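User: Structure tokens for both sequences below?

Assistant:
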Amino acid sequence: MQDYYLLLSTGTVNTATGELAGHNIRDSSDERFFLGAFGAAGRAEEIYFGCADTKGCYGFMEGCLETSDCQAVVTYQGASETSYLIEVQGTVAERDYVAVGFSPDGVAGNEVVLGCQDVGGGSVGVVTYWYSTAGAERALEEAENQTMAVLETAYRDGDVIYCSFIIPSDFTLEVRIH
């Protein structure tokens, strides 16, 4: 698997269609990250625990990793020799989402976006979207979704949404032309 720029966003979900309606926050890392750079995953309640030591972390607002108060944060580490553990967390309003895209060029467009979404009734779900260069998001159909093992979905501290999932190391994170 190649190195990727990490794209973080939070935003609103269209309640009629269940699709992403727009971004409130959008940020892109200045450097590329290799998702397997850290060893086997350990479960920690605190998403910031182990950043830069046992897992890689990227967060939105500058300096937020040191103060453990990012508006959106993603962590990544090897779960095994053939898979990665990804955690996504962000402060959201009702029916909102927090998501991460993996970009080969640091520019949003033509990548799969993995996210954590308020699905109503206080429930949280893991979602996959396709983000096109035209800026249109659409939920990937179940047949298009790739194998992903959801570990946890939750609200933490009222307005903080959290998801963790494992993706295989051969997970296709780039454009797939049909």
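Moving on to the next sequence.
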Amino acid sequence: MDISPATIRNDMKQLEEMGLVYQPYNSAGRLPTTRGIRMYVDYLIEVAPQRYLGTPLISEESALEFHDDRLYDLVSDLANATHDLAFCSSPEAGIYCIAGLSHFLKKHSETLGEQVFGILDTIENRTLFTRTVSNLAQPGRITVCIGEENILPELESCALMVADITLA
């Protein structure tokens, strides 16, 4: 890329004026604001292929054999792929799985400190968390709540992605 440092500085200044990035202190680089992250996520969702939404994850033949161990394996695979926390809930089947707690703690315990425990308490509150996630789920769409957009105040330091998927 043939871009001068002055061009980069001017572009960063414009992004800062638009409220998309901020500089926490003079010698620091720029970090995205919640508004900047929201704009980026909205762009990704708009251009992301929709082929996975509404597509069954397992065939009808295997649906009869499906049980919570296999569901946990799917959630565990997602946690390992993202190196973060993953969960699923199927209230009708009485299933609630959380995986990736070690990923979450390794990634966030130092930066979030004591907030980590509030986040985990919220996620472990099966009834409240499942109800909240169910209210966010929209068929055929990925719902993303970033920072203060989260309904639960304990999750304001997190981004929550919710997708209503079909298992059979």
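User: Anything stand out in the second?

Assistant: The longest strand covers residues 86-90.
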